[in-house]
Amino acid sequence: MPPIFDKKNIIVTGGAGFIGSHLCEKLLAEGNRVICVDNLISSALQNIDFLLKNPDFEFIRHDIGMPFDPEQFPELERFKVKFQGIQEIYHLACPMSPKAFEQTRMQVLYANSLGMKYTLDLAVKYKARYLFTSTSSVYGPRPMDNHHLKEDENGQTDMHSPRASYDEGKRFAETCCSTYNHVHGVDARIARIFRTYGPRERLYSGEMVPDFILNALDNKEIEIYGDETFTTSLCYVTDVVDGLMKLMSADKDIGPVNIGSDIDIPLVDIVRNILEMTGSTSRISFKPSLLFMTPLGLPDLTKAKEKLGWMPLVPLDEGLKKIIDYTMAYKNILQGFGGTATPGIAPTESESKESSTIAGVEDMPELG
């Protein structure tokens, strides 16, 4: 019987990112101690600045593609890791920006390989429960018949495609989870996240909803990379965080679980909602599809509903209002990524000595 502590010690890699920062916030609110690990390649300290004074929160600037030993950081001594250990690990770290993907392919590759090894090794050492944020991209392109995707579908991706370090990397990462479970008995859970939106989503990085809002606020042309038939689903970030925590707290591992919205919405309708909410005079245009802006499949949520009692609750209009308010407040401040590195580019050799060059922030939240 493992000892019971008054507060859990929880590691969140990519904790300064979009989804990661909301996860850290919710974990703290529920009375846990949180160690946020992030190298700020494509995240922002602004996402967690309001958490830094919380004695149960500590930010460690570190590249999770390099070995990580929480017992070697003096700032974590108050967490008594040598005595208490680590109870849970959420691994979200993976740098992603549609506009900078070509410059960060190697970092994405390492996050989905070396990052998996070092975080899973921590789970072995501390007998910690582990949760990996995978992606809807493991299923491959949207199916021709448009059916909702079940977790037992194998999917199909091209391991040689320009975006394979993300798609195939996430598939390999899931294999890492199952292998560590079979060999070391690690209790590793897998959440397959579908398109997510909300406050703290990166601005000026090529993600769809923030770009739509930014252009609408400036009355600039809004570009949809596809035609009028381009549809997608959108799940609000706090619903996603709730799903991750329910999966982590489940009595036993139930295998991969889809976390997202199963409601298909035309992109042009989302844009029209934004135009109405902002009073914008922007016009809509349609452009050729981009590598990371393509229609993705929809999740079958039966497993999440029946096994976890989870389903998305935040209506689209309510979620859009919140991200519009956030964007209006921060659009002149966040002219790109946070951190000291050039947006989307690995740090220099001198910077690498401080925080290395590999992992990043969170799963590709909007792109699946």
Could you please describe the fold and organization of this structure?
With 368 residues, the protein is an alpha/beta fold. It has a domain at 9-199 and 235-262 and 294-313 and 338-355: NAD(P)-binding Rossmann-like Domain (Rossmann fold), CATH 3.40.50.720. It has helices spanning 18-29, 81-84, 105-111, 114-126, 164-184, 208-217, 237-249, 267-278, 302-308, 316-330, 349-355, and strands at residues 9-13, 33-38, 57-61, 88-91, 129-135, 188-193, 196-197, 222-225, 231-232, 235-236, 257-259, 265-266, 284-287. The strands form four sheets. Strands 3-2-1-4-5-6-11 form a seven-stranded parallel beta sheet, with helices on both faces. Strand 5, helix 5 and strand 6 (188-193) form a beta-alpha-beta unit. Helix 1 packs across helix 7 (237-249), helix 6 (208-217) packs parallel to helix 8 and helix 8 (267-278) packs across helix 10 (316-330). The radius of gyration is 19 Å and the shape is globular.
Report the β-strand fraction as a percent range: 5-15%
Instruction: Give the CATH topology of the domain at 9-199 and 235-262 and 294-313 and 338-355.
Output: Rossmann fold
What's the main sheet like?
A: 7 strands, parallel
Rg measurement, Å: 19 Å
State the helix count: 11
| Oligomeric state of the chains in view | single chain
> What is the level-2 CATH architecture name of the domain at 9-199 and 235-262 and 294-313 and 338-355?
3-Layer(aba) Sandwich
CATH homologous superfamily label of the domain at 9-199 and 235-262 and 294-313 and 338-355: NAD(P)-binding Rossmann-like Domain
Question: Helix-strand pattern, N to C?
Answer: EHEEHEHHEHEEHEEEHEEHEHHH
SS class: alpha/beta
Mean pLDDT, rounded to whole units? 87
Going across the biggest sheet, name each strand in turn.
Answer: 3-2-1-4-5-6-11
Name of the CATH class of the domain at 9-199 and 235-262 and 294-313 and 338-355: Alpha Beta
